[in-house]
């Protein structure tokens, strides 16, 4: 599913896509409610970019050679290969989905396990016709029984978000050995057919075998159907993936040019500094560098100067979103939005970006930052009409004031901002007593713990904590190991947490998981802030039911604006690119798609690999 806020090792090289539904063909009659569309693809709005006869995606090289060995890394550890349940620390291979999401469109799915799809004008149901050649690695065909079993199992035993996701799927019918129909309830929801296209399909015969229980963690490599299978591994240390030579889907249009490495080894590192040293030593071939300091300073080595090691920023416009401090409003002390806003007044991004982030980032002012979905200025047109329905139920600033983070002087400590913070705290019922911020009504002093799992965050968080202490808050950073972090995150056992809010270019049902009331108390949901606001719920429903792209944009901007003025987060940073560091041994497609590049699009270039090896041996 879309990105989870917990530490799962998601191997993009071997997983399929996840969300939207696509478009009409020339023979469709859009004014005929009884007409049934049948197509190779489905778009959320409008037409798919690629027609039924397409042979490959434009951003891939269909002639990319297969072969080679690549070494990757992952932070932390793992103790399970079952990444679909709320137990354990999972890694490994995800199950293929019925359809695959293209990377150069907002939200369109193309056939993978499903050869074609059928749906009515109102999208109240969808039929998937499975490919006869689709099969599991043991040779057993993938059938409608597997699809129906997968839905039932995920709803009953999977991560709680699946129950929310598939809540409006009221029936799953087997129409034939390779034909399955899903029927929906709950009114207009154009995205539901696409969501079902992103259903991970699991082998019923494998999981129903004696001795297996899907609800439990396991280190038995699962039976899958994709381009890779798990080979050698050692729990918590490494996993090796081997390309399946006779993979049934290797010549499909959605597959040509992807998954080119013969072997992939993922080593797990608990320390980021050690990871970087392994990269520089040649023990890792590809690395995404998330530390601004290390991007700026760590790689000034001979290999970079002679071209063997490459640093490159690949554009990525796959989604809006940001990294932010999420405030846990489940806790009584954080339920007043004035207090939450006060905390933002002592966060000095300008100073941090100059002194800690080396000018690498931008400060976001939207949950859909960098896209047309982001609210800006004052609401107008359809967005204003939508918000007028909620006047009196949302902050008045929604209508009168463009949202922005508090301006600072870049000194790291702004007295003007501190004064404004104290004013807001006084309005919220807090005052300083004996140098401690204290609740006037209860006499309880304010404490605030920021939970993290990476020691490297300390440099960026401590200046913020220093300013929080100037407000009289007993603030501290707690860094725990991966397992503790996941468990505390699942139980919402934190005051504040740093997390990414990565969004889709075509937002829909997943917004219920991010901000919806139903998700707020669901263990392991993505509603980290614990938002329970009927207005937000209604706006999410409007986003989901948007009839076209223009309406979707207006409704999403309205949702964005209400969330921003709720002050559920302190926006931290955003980046419209992905910073890669890699050894110059790869060929790459000429085009970078809307969603950015992926190492699953690359291939080993033998001549480059030999040149890198020669230079490395010479230096040693």
Give an overview of the whole structure.
This protein has 620 residues and is an alpha+beta fold. The protein has 3 domains: 1-270, Periplasmic binding protein-like II (D-Maltodextrin-Binding Protein, domain 2), CATH 3.40.190; 272-314 and 578-620, no CATH class; 321-573, Dipeptide-binding Protein, domain 3, CATH 3.10.105.10. 26% of the residues lie in helices and 21% in strands. Strands 1-6-7-9-8 form a 5-stranded antiparallel sheet. β8 (169-176) and β9 form a beta hairpin. α8 (337-344) runs antiparallel to α12. The longest helix is centred in the last third of the chain and has 18 residues, at 549-566. Mean pLDDT is 91; it is low at 1-31.
List the helices and strands and how they pair.
Layout: E1 36-39, E2 41-43, E3 69-75, E4 99-101, E5 108-111, E6 114-120, E7 125-130, H1 144-157, H2 160-165, E8 169-176, E9 179-184, H3 192-197, H4 204-207, E10 228-234, E11 238-243, E12 263-269, H5 272-280, E13 286-288, H6 292-297, H7 302-305, E14 309-315, E15 321-327, H8 337-344, H9 349-355, H10 381-388, H11 397-400, H12 415-427, E16 430-433, E17 436-439, E18 447-452, H13 458-470, E19 474-479, H14 482-490, E20 496-502, H15 510-515, H16 517-520, H17 534-544, H18 549-566, E21 569-573, E22 577-583, E23 586-587, E24 603-604, H19 606-619
Parallel strand pairs: 3-12, 18-19, 18-20
Antiparallel strand pairs: 1-6, 2-5, 4-5, 6-7, 7-9, 8-9, 10-11, 11-12, 13-22, 14-22, 15-20, 15-21, 16-17, 23-24
Helix pairs in contact: 8-12, 10-18, 17-18
């Amino acid at each position: 599913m879309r990105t989870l806020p917990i530490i799962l090792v998601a191997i993009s090289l071997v997983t399929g896509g996840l969300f939207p539904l696509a478009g009409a063909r020339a023979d469709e009659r859009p004014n005929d409610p009884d007409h049934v569309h049948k197509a190779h693809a489905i778009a959320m709005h409008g037409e798919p970019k690629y027609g039924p006869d397409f042979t490959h995606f434009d951003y891939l090289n269909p002639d990319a050679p297969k072969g080679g060995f690549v070494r990757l890394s992952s932070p932390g550890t793992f103790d399970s290969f079952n990444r679909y349940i709320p137990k354990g620390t999972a890694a490994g291979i995800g199950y293929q989905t019925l359809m695959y999401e293209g990377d150069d469109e907002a939200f369109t799915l193309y056939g993978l396990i499903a050869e074609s799809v059928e749906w009515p004008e109102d999208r109240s149901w969808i039929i998937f016709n499975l490919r006869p050649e689709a099969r599991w690695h043991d040779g057993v065909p993938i059938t409608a029984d597997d699809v129906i079993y997968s839905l039932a199992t995920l709803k009953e035993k999977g991560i709680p978000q699946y129950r929310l996701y598939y809540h409006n799927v009221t029936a799953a019918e087997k129409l034939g050995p390779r034909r399955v129909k899903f029927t929906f309830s709950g009114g207009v929801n154009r995205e539901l057919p696409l969501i079902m296209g992103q259903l991970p399909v699991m082998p019923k015969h494998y999981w129903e075998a004696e001795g297996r229980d899907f609800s439990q963690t396991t280190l038995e490599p699962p039976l899958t159907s994709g381009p890779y299978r798990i080979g050698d591994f050692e729990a918590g240390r490494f996993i090796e993936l081997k390309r399946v030579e006779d993979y049934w889907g290797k010549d499909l249009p959605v597959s040509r040019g992807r998954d080119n490495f013969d072997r992939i080894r993922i080593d797990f590192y608990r320390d980021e500094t050690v990871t970087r040293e392994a990269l520089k030593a040649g023990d890792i071939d590809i690395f995404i560098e998330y530390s601004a300091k290390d991007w700026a300073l760590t790689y000034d080595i001979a290999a970079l100067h002679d071209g063997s090691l490459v640093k490159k920023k690949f554009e990525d416009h796959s989604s809006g979103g940001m990294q932010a401090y999420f405030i846990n409003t489940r806790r009584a002390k954080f339920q007043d939005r004035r207090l939450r806003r006060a905390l933002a007044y002592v966060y000095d991004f300008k100073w941090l970006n100059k002194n800690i982030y080396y000018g690498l980032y931008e400060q976001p002012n939207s949950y859909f930052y960098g896209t047309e979905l982001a609210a800006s200025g004052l609401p107008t047109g359809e967005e204003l009409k939508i918000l007028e329905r909620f006047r009196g139920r949302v902050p008045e600033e929604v209508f009168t004031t463009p949202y922005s983070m508090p301006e600072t002087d870049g000194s790291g400590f702004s007295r003007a901002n501190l004064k404004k913070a104290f004013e807001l705290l006084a309005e919220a019922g807090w005052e300083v007593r004996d140098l401690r911020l204290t609740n006037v009504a209860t006499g309880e002093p304010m404490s605030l713990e920021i939970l993290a799992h990476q020691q490297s965050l300390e440099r960026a968080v401590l200046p913020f904590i220093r300013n929080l202490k100037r407000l009289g808050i007993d603030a501290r950073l707690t860094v725990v190991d991966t397992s503790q972090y996941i468990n505390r995150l699942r139980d919402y056992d934190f005051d504040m947490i740093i997390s990414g809010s990565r969004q889709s270019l075509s937002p829909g049902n997943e917004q219920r998981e991010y901000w919806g009331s139903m998700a707020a108390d669901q263990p392991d949901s993505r509603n980290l802030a614990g938002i329970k606001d009927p207005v937000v719920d209604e706006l999410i429903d409007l986003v989901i039911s948007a009839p076209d792209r223009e309406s979707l944009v207006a409704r999403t901007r309205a949702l964005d604006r209400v969330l921003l003025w709720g002050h559920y987060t302190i926006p931290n940073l955003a980046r419209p690119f992905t910073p890669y560091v890699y050894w110059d041994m790869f060929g790459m497609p000429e085009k970078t798609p809307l969603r950015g590049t992926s190492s699953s699009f690359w291939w080993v270039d033998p001549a480059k690999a030999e040149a890198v090896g020669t230079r490395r041996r010479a230096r040693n």
